[in-house]
Amino acid sequence: MFISIIKIYPPTGSEHTIIDVLESVKVAIANLPDCLECSVALEAGEEGLVSYMEQWSTREALDRHLQSPLYGRVLEAMELSRALPEMSFFEVSRIGSLELVVGVRVSAID
Fold it and tell me: CA-based, 20 to 30 A from 106: which of 32, 78, 92, 97?
């Protein structure tokens, strides 16, 4: 699985413009078979920081998306940032869930 996380710092008052652009991308990719998840969030306490996350099943799917005209809209939203946007890509090889938390907490008690 491949995860992309982007943090955009919108100028005061333009948060919703950026969110609208990213939400339109989210709607467009939601039904793509290799898109596992996509989310847009306005974070509290960060002067309107907008976080955008995508999860893709394969590197090929991520690459196709990055090359698509639709991803150009994400880049346009990033250009509106008042500070340099942060962009991170992660390749996930293992995924844990509640069992991971339980295992760690139980071993800490022993």
Answer: 92
The residue written with tokens 């005061």 in the block is: 12
Alpha-carbon span 47 to 64, nearest angstrom: 33
pTM assigned to the model: 0.86
- Which secondary structure element, helix H or strand E, spans residue 19, and what is its range? helix 15-29
The per-residue pLDDT string of the chain (110 residues; one tens digit each, 9 = 90 and over) reads 999 999 999 998 889 999 999 999 999 999 999 999 999 999 887 677 999 999 999 999 999 999 999 999 999 999 999 999 999 999 998 877 888 888 888 876 76
